[in-house]
Amino acid sequence: MELLTIGAFAKASRLSPKALRLYDELDLLPPARVDPDTGYRYYTLAQLERARLVAWLRRLGMPLARIRAVCALDAADAAREIRAYWARVEAETAVRRDLAAFLVAELTGEPRGRHTMLELRYAARSDRGHVRPANQDTVYAGRRLLAVADGCGPAGAPASRAAVAALRFLDEAEEPAAGSVLNLLEEAVRGANEAVQDLARDGDGGESGTTLTALLWTGSKLALVHIGDSRAYLLRDGGLFRITHDHSVVQSLIDEGRLTQEEAESHPQRALLLKALGTSGAPAVPDLRVREARDGDRYLVCSDGLTRVVPDALIEELLAAEPDPEAAVRSLIGAANAAGGPDNVSCAVADVVESARPAAAVG
Fold first, then answer.
1. What is the CATH number of domain 3-69?
2. pTM of this prediction?
């Protein structure tokens, strides 16, 4: 068996001797032989393939712990793991890209004259559905705020109401400076989480919580806060785009390449959440983003009572077919109930339009 010195192996694998020593300590790439007197490391040619894979994965930015897991898989499973990792990196990069563009625009004094000519035209409605004995959803739509919360557990209904109530002051407050809107939303969600936890402590001992997905209008942009598996969509230029990512067990399995979308629809754990407000343990960290709004955009915020039974293609069709937000909301809820109405369903639809006159809140 031909052995390579650590220097020769480093050159062949494009890993530095320092990196090779670290990977040995982590049991990621142990040498084939270590001289008992000098401690000098030797490697075989057969180890080059694993070493090169480690080098490539490090160039991707993959953490060492995850690289160790990938290297232990067969080729097909390793490929799925790498694909899932990169999909997550791209999603996180998109969030940072949007935030960077937002901050650059604010710091360079982007003209705001055009933006003040836009406003939201909105409608909201919630329905118990055909199966559940009570409605644990809460929905709200106002001149600046759209919000949906889907409660769970013994105090699910009060929890969803408390979560939305903790954000409603944003609808009536003065428009925040664009640069501080994410901090404002984050603080409001922290208050919502505390309110939901207080309800759970005062209840019958069963764990209760709620999802929360909301959009806050700043006159030119929409700030998004999201936790759980309620969703927000954007209908723009004839195409429907989901702008939230479910915090659910099933979605994590899809991200990791372990489930297809089709398999997820009938998965027994499809209702289990990875994040929610009010649950025990450390407070869940919400997703926060800022989006540029355009005249003609239509936004939908909804509970999973819609998305579990109405496919995205039909949601897109119904949103595009109804010119009025109120008609669109009724159409979407009707579609969910026509599909059996197995869950509470709540929808808020808002169109970005040229300014007309102030409107009252609904929901």
1. 1.10.1660.10
2. 0.69
